[in-house]
Design a protein that fits this description.
Number of helices: 32
Structural class: alpha+beta
Shape: globular
Radius of gyration: 39 Å
Number of strands: 44
Largest sheet: 10 strands, mixed
Low-confidence stretches: 286-316, 338-343, 386-459, 735-810, 816-824, 928-952, 969-1011, 1117-1124, 1193-1197, 1204-1234
Strand content: 15-25%
Helix content: 25-40%
């Protein structure tokens, strides 16, 4: 294959990994026969779907498919009161007063398969049983009126399309890096004619066009003799005086007509027949003008002027002079004028299908190829050559497969031709372009190509055909439509260019101009770089790219067309993109943006044109019956239907892009209104050995083989997590050395070699040096010589000796030997904090410092977890984790150490991966003048304290130690202080010190980790391409849990606006690889799996409720008991024990994204709720009833009901709103326990983001997921006695605990 690419070449991108929502309309025609005797149901499954999936397999299509069956049932009833109250939630009333109910059956939900043919047998069985399932959905509701399945024309077509649009308009959430493109496909047994609501049609049209969603409507019936698809409005025109249209031809909906193999064979046989009809139509002569095309009637050859003159004059007896005088009088008196009457498009009159083009009309034009006449066409719309030849009498070569734009222009010109010539009036927003010729029509005369081209360009941009996506391909009765297999197989991506330009008069009269200037490079800044690190050219291109990814389109025209328009004058120059002048014009619906790079190359001017009368879209509510995946029947569901606003704070977005890492400092931080991309991941401990064992058994046995992790396993997970965070930061800690390999503080004076793992702190040199030192990247400090160390230790009374013996006895570091004292003292909890800090500073016996050439950090930095481990290792006695934390808190308060990055960690010492540094001795104050915050008044040149908005921050995470007193409690919630966990032995050894003063000053026994309300999430700015592999600066934001607990999951969310997906994919891959080496695995997860957020929930998704059937004597009477009752507490403990046995981990999460604005403030700014995730990452769970209700947003008001619009009740709520539970804006009724009758149980959601790409031995395969759900359901139902056995075990453990407590009291 070869070709030539020029500047006028348009490249159309197509995707083989799109998100496809396929709806199959199960109307009554599905059980009818077509013209060849085939059932439409079999025609859909055995015909269309079979061929489609074969095309997918042949073309290696790996799209993500959701397949839904939908229908509408109309009941023979007059009022809703005839129905039981349980049905009122999903009933609707149309404009004719008919009561109906919509049904949706989800067969496949977000799945990817290499071969879809195996699914067709299951689909066919479900379709055969569809009517019975719908009829039996209300079997338990009592007596109901009779209902019937409606025809395809009366079905819920637009409602089904909006179900998918509710997912597509949130495409920026739950993003992955191996999918692109969105398309909705509808298969209907009808012929493309539907009765719809006017308002819903307008909402659907703007959502489809503005969101850039592809669509395909496949009709199984015969093609009608009029343009389709055709949407007929249900409302009465008399009630809408401003509306004159009774129908709408949806140009935004690509349609196809499928012919079964038997139909194609029949048509081929008829085309090969040599039957000659007895009656033949008379042939007509060649058309006199190009406008007399297919729609002109045959006529006799015209008589010549001499024949007409001679016959007329002689018949009347007039002379030639008298005849000329009469003719001149007639032309003057009976002069005709073109009538300016607004025409309505009549689908049965092809000549009336011309309409004014709009920007929305040309959104998808650049996706399709050009026809033989230069017009944009769709190849699956073809004309029947046999019919054309019979009607025209000409050869097939004279007729093209489609009508060109010139034929549209000619048809329009003929209608406005007068006796004096041709006058074409183009009405386009108060602007008229007139082309007049006094002699004859312009297309009949031989004009220059430039004049004809100028006229065609003007008509092409302003007038087009009212049918079809392109607006240039005219409809004719001979047009035969096939199947657009190209669109159904490789989905077309939304084009980034368009050719519809706004004229200057339209912009002046119908638009408001909003200019603003971005000073990318300040006057005193570098001439080459902006604050974000971008060059001026790259920042300018990024501003344009940000609009393209938000479905804006560049307005471009070929140079020849621009030159043709330039001949008309400067007022006719189009507002189009001109790269040579650094001027880009973009359009989106009723909005235009003009971006210009100023000649000074330091600033960018942006002009936004917004319509004076913007479109308004109501926010509607919709109720329906849904059979979700893994459900056993239909349930009532609710969703919203509305068009989200187009403009999303472009001024804020532009400043954010130009400022980069300084955006937060300047007040332009990342916000939800910017619709940024986000992907959430979850870090889970690996259980690959258990999953592999279950796989070897074929998942035949029980799956509740997961046990609670022991103390050693939790410590292993904690150490592995710290190693993961090291890799997260792309840094390494020094490995811990055994005590025998550590050099002693006091040893051979000549042995002065510094170990390689230690780093010297840079600073001013003073004093002589003795001995040699190991070469490092830092300058050696002479103060670290042996003599200097001995001098420093002697000044504070510390001497060495007997180190090995001391470690064997107590594991502590020896203190100075006092005069007259036979034995040296050791470091203990009684040792002053300043002495402990001095030993920690030691390069030999001190805490391990951070290794490697760390940019921006000094050599005296360490990790908080290493410091706590050093305290517990080097102090005598058994030092608990909480006591070590208290000692480090005292050292922090006295000003010996401080946090490098976190202001919070400067107040409270946080255990985990927090970076602290030593404060120089000259800045450390006495204990009597401690600074409350622990931050010195003056900043040392040796220590760098970073700001939280730094462009090179570090990931810092606190950890809950398994031996800590606050273990298992939420880090973001204040926990109760418990002093009984303090080691009593250490308190008894504190001679001469008041215990109350120790607890007050030293804080030993307190819990510094939770003495404040730590936010659940943290957020930081991350520069992705730190190695500068790309020529553009890219960054993202990372929101993650602020605390790690070995018995909980750890969430990470990636947020970006300017990053390349390939770099992000590489970043996530590196994180996942690091997780595997640390004993974890990283899997993608949902931002909101249970649909708490009402605006972003999936309308076709519903969690599965699994009831926990407990014996009656286990809980007692649960109904009516409060949350603090004994029965409720016992039920929660039972639920927790079940979740532990099946391998579910707790996860404190939020359905909102953690941003800098909601993580640096109070934790209540980000609503947190508790849910559970399986250790493999395949499923999520919620426990019912809630111990605490899920956090909700503000109470939303009732939405206008969709069903009332046709009757004119646009402001009324649903007819059954009084009987419904008020929505809380989370996607389901509140509270959830009332929905399930207050029963104990679980809500189960499958993680469909866990695709084949993320599968491993730690996640298990699809069979494991099915076995887990089945066995978990059996366990909760108590079928095999395991639930009763668990209850007996818990009861016996409780009795033993109670007996032990009684014995202690007696003792």
């Amino acid at each position: 294959m070869c070709g030539a690419v020029t500047e006028d070449t348009r490249v159309a991108f197509r995707s083989s990994t799109a998100m496809v929502y396929m709806f199959v309309q199960m109307s009554s025609e599905m059980w009818d026969f077509d013209t060849c005797g085939d059932l439409y149901l079999e025609k859909a499954v055995n015909g269309f779907l079979t061929e489609l999936f074969c095309q997918w397999k042949r073309s290696n299509i790996n799209s993500e498919l959701t397949l839904v069956l939908f229908s509408r049932t109309i009941y023979e009833a007059k009022t809703i009161n005839e129905f039981p109250e349980s049905m009122h939630g999903a009933l609707h009333v149309d404009s004719a007063g008919r009561i109906y109910e919509d049904f949706y059956r989800v067969v496949v939900h977000n799945e990817r398969r290499d071969d879809w043919m195996q699914m067709l047998s299951t689909l066919k069985q479900i379709m055969w049983e569809y009517n019975d399932a719908v009829a039996s959905s209300h079997r338990g509701d009592g007596s109901i009126p009779k209902g019937y399945n409606c025809k395809a024309a009366d079905g819920n077509l637009l409602e089904a399309m909006n179900m998918s649009l509710n997912v597509f308009d949130n495409h920026y959430i739950n993003r992955n890096f191996d999918r692109t493109g969105q398309v909705v496909e509808i298969v209907t047994p009808g012929a493309g004619v539907f009765h719809v609501d006017r308002t819903l049609c307008d909402i659907t049209k703007h959502r489809m066009i503005d969101y850039g969603i592809g669509s395909d409507l496949v009709c199984l019936a015969e093609q009608p003799p009029h343009p389709v698809p055709l949407l007929l409005f249900n409302d009465d025109i008399a009630k809408s005086p401003g509306s004159t249209d009774t129908h709408h031809i949806p140009y935004w909906l690509n349609y196809s007509f499928y012919l079964s193999p038997s139909q194609r064979h029949r048509n081929f046989s008829s085309s090969q027949s040599h039957f000659i009809p007895r009656i033949r139509l008379p042939t007509r002569n060649a058309p006199d003008r190009p406008s007399a095309g297919l729609n002109a009637l045959p006529k006799l050859p015209p008589r010549t002027a001499n024949e007409m003159h001679s016959s007329g004059s002689h018949a009347a007896g007039y002379t030639d002079e008298e005849w000329d005088e009469f003719s001149q009088f007639d032309r003057t008196i009976f002069k005709s004028h073109p009538a300016r009457v607004k025409k309505c498009n009549n689908p049965f009159v092809p000549a009336s299908l011309t309409t004014k083009l709009t920007p929305d009309r040309r959104r998808w034009t650049h996706t399709f190829p050009h026809g033989p006449h230069g017009d944009v066409i769709q190849l699956h719309h073809r004309s029947s050559s046999q019919s054309l030849m019979e009607s025209s009498g000409g050869s097939g070569s004279e007729l093209s497969s489609s009508s060109s734009a010139s034929s549209l222009c000619n048809e329009f010109a003929v209608e406005e031709t007068t006796a004096e010539g041709l006058k074409i009036v183009l009405h386009d927003a108060r602007h008229e372009a007139t082309v007049a010729n006094k002699e004859q029509p312009p297309f009949a005369q031989k004009e220059s190509p430039s004049r004809i081209g100028s006229l065609m360009v003007n008509l092409k941009r302003r007038i087009g055909c009212g049918w079809g996506i392109t607006g240039e391909q005219a409809w004719t009765p001979f047009l035969q439509t096939g199947v657009d297999w190209k669109s159904l197989t490789a989905t077309a991506c939304f084009p980034i260019t368009t050719d519809f330009y706004p004229d200057k008069k339209t912009l002046e009269m119908d638009y408001l101009e909003s200019p603003h200037t971005l000073d990318i490079i300040p006057d005193d800044g570098d001439e080459a770089f902006s604050p974000s690190g971008k060059t001026i050219q790259s920042a300018f291109e990024e501003l344009v790219s940000q609009r393209l990814i938000q479905n804006y389109q560049l307005i471009v025209l070929p140079r020849s067309e621009i030159a043709s328009l330039a001949h008309k004058g400067s007022s006719h120059l189009p507002l189009v993109t001109n790269p040579s002048k650094h001027e880009y014009i973009l359009s989106y619906g009723q909005t235009y943006h003009k971006i210009i790079l100023k000649p000074d190359m330091k600033s960018v001017e942006i002009v936004r044109y917004n319509a004076r009368k913007p479109r308004t879209s109501p926010k509607l509510g919709y109720s329906y019956r849904l059979w979700a995946i893994r459900k056993s029947g239909y349930e009532t569901a609710h969703t919203r239907v509305y068009h989200k606003p187009v403009d999303n704070k472009w001024n804020h977005r532009d400043n954010y892009i130009c400022l980069g890492g300084e955006a937060t400092r300047e007040g332009f931080d990342l916000q939800e209104s910017l619709k940024f991309w986000r992907s959430r991941f979850i870090l889970l401990p690996s259980a690959s050995s258990l999953v592999r064992k279950l796989s070897d058994q074929g998942y035949q046995g029980p799956v509740d083989v997961f046990e609670e992790r022991s103390m050693s396993q939790r410590l292993t997970l904690l150490d592995g997590f710290l190693r993961f965070v090291e890799g997260w930061n792309r840094k390494r800690r020094a490995p811990s050395r055994p005590p025998s390999q550590r050099p002693s503080v006091v040893g051979d004076p000549t042995q002065t070699t510094t170990p390689r793992r230690l780093k010297s702190r840079s600073g001013p040199t003073s004093g002589p040096t003795s001995g040699d030192s190991t070469p490092t990247t830092f300058q050696p400090n002479p103060m670290l010589s042996t003599a200097s160390i001995n001098s420093a230790l002697a000044s504070i009374g510390i001497i060495g000796g007997g180190g090995a013996k001391g470690k064997e006895e107590g594991g502590g570091v020896f203190l100075p030997k006092s005069p007259g004292s036979p034995e040296p003292d050791k470091l203990s909890l009684l040792t002053p904090a300043s002495h402990v800090a001095s030993i920690m500073r030691s390069p030999i016996e001190g805490v391990s410092l951070m290794t490697g050439d760390v940019k921006g950090l000094t050599g005296d930095c360490f990790v908080s977890a290493d410091a706590v481990a050093w305290i517990r290792k080097n102090l005598i006695g058994s030092v608990s984790h909480d006591e070590a934390l208290s000692l480090m808190q005292m050292i922090l308060e006295e000003g010996h150490i401080r946090s490098v990055f976190s202001a919070t960690a400067n107040k409270t010492f946080l255990y985990g991966y927090y970076i602290y540094c030593f404060v120089p001795q000259s800045e450390v104050t006495s204990p009597d003048s401690r600074r409350p915050s622990g931050i010195p008044a003056t900043r040392s040149p040796l220590t760098l304290t970073f700001d939280t908005t730094s462009r090179n921050p570090w990931f810092e995470v606190s950890c809950s130690h398994p031996e800590g007193g606050n273990y298992g409690k939420l880090s973001h919630q204040p926990s109760e202080e418990s002093s009984e966990n303090r080691d009593e032995t250490a308190a008894e050894n504190q001679e001469g010190v008041d215990s109350a003063e120790v607890e007050k000053d030293n804080g030993i026994g307190s819990e510094p980790e939770t003495s404040f309300q730590q936010p659940a999430y943290k957020s930081l700015f991350l520069e992705i391409d730190s190695s500068k592999l790309k020529d553009r600066v890219e960054w993202c934001h990372v929101g993650y849990h602020s605390n790690y607990n070995p018995v909980s999951a750890f969430e990470i969310e990636l947020q970006w606006l300017t990053s390349t997906p390939s770099l992000l994919q590489e970043l996530i891959t590196n994180w996942a690889r690091r997780a595997v080496t640390s004993g974890f695995h990283l899997v993608p997860t949902h931002v909101d799996p249970f649909g708490f957020n009402w605006d972003t929930s999936d309308s076709l998704h519903s969690p599965l409720f699994i009831e926990l059937r407990l014996p009656g004597d286990c809980l007692g009477e649960v109904k009516g008991s409060g949350e603090d009752s004994t029965a409720m507490e016992v039920g929660r403990r039972i639920q927790q024990a079940i979740l532990t046995r099946f391998g579910f981990l707790s996860n404190q999460t939020s359905y909102h994204s953690p941003l800098a604005s909601n993580t640096q403030s109070d934790h209540s700014a980000l609503p947190i709720h508790s849910q559970y995730v399986h250790v493999t990452g395949c499923a999520f769970l919620l426990t019912l009833p809630f111990s605490q209700p899920p956090p909700s947003t503000l109470q939303t008001q009732h939405l206008p009901c969709l069903c009332k619009l046709g009757a004119g009740h646009t402001n009324s709520s649903c007819p059954t709103s009084a009987s419904r539970t008020q929505s809380n804006g989370m996607g389901f009724e509140s509270p959830i326990p009332e929905r399930y009758g207050g029963k104990f149980g679980f809500l189960y959601v499958h993680n469909y983001l866990l695709s084949k790409k993320w599968r491993s031995s730690a996640t298990g395969d699809e069979k494991f997921h099915e076995a887990l759900l089945a066995d978990f359901s059996r366990f909760c139902q108590g079928e095999d006695g395991r639930l009763v056995q668990l209850l007996e075990t818990m009861r016996s453990c409780k009795e033993e605990t109670s007996a032990g407590a009684d014995d202690d009291q007696l003792g």
